[in-house]
Amino acid sequence: MRALFTKPTEDQIQRQLLGWLKAVCPNAVVFAVPNGEHRNKATAGKLKGQGVLPGAPDLVIAHDGVIAFVEVKRPKGGRLSPAQLEFQERCSEQRLPYGVVRSPGDLQAFLDDIGIKTRAA
Ligand SMILES: [Mg+2]
After folding, report:
1. Cβ–Cβ under 8 Å, residues 30 and 19
2. Domain VRR-NUC: where (predicted)?
3. pLDDT range class, residue 1, cuts 50, 70, 90
4. How does pLDDT run across 30-49, given as a tens digit for each residue?
5. CB 97 within 8 A of CB 114
6. Which residues have beta carbons under 5 A from ligand 1 (an ion)?
7. 95 CA → ligand 1 middle, Å
8. How do strand 29-32 and strand 98-101 relate by DSSP bridges?
């Protein structure tokens, strides 16, 4: 039996965010960037050749002419890696919305900031 107050994993938070988004912004185009999974050297090389980019965020959300990059982190402790910080910086330079999100409330605030309207707003 699972303990009642275990901290959610990043995977659990990401799933929660996707469910929330589907409910409050059903027309958004949303997809995950599966960068973080373990892979062997050959697969890593193949994916790199195909354009997989270290530090790319967990989710891409596009809605009504706005595109946003979302890095999912655990509520406490999860920090951006050097590659993620570099990606964030590149987004800043290109004036592209990039948010670090730890809960649906965070995601709501981020989407509000960048003008993506949701049913929850
Ligand atoms: Mg993440």
Report:
1. no
2. 8-105
3. low
4. 999 988 778 899 998 999 89
5. yes
6. 58, 72
7. 21
8. unpaired
Token pair recorded at residue 28: 């958004």
Q: Tokens for 15, please give them.
A: 């799933």
Please state the pTM of the whole predicted model.
0.90
Backbone angles phi, psi at 103, to 5 degrees: -165, 165
Q: How far, in Å, from the CA of 109 to the mean position of ligand 1? A: 18
The CA distance from 117 to 121, in Å, is: 7
Q: What is the pLDDT of residues 57-90, one digit of tens each?
A: 999 999 999 999 999 999 887 899 999 999 999 9
Q: Are 72 and 120 in contact (CB under 8 A)?
A: no
Check whether domain 10-114 has CATH 3.10.100.10, yes or no: no
Per-residue pLDDT at 5: 67
| C-alpha triplet 54, 112, 15: angle, nearest 5° | 50
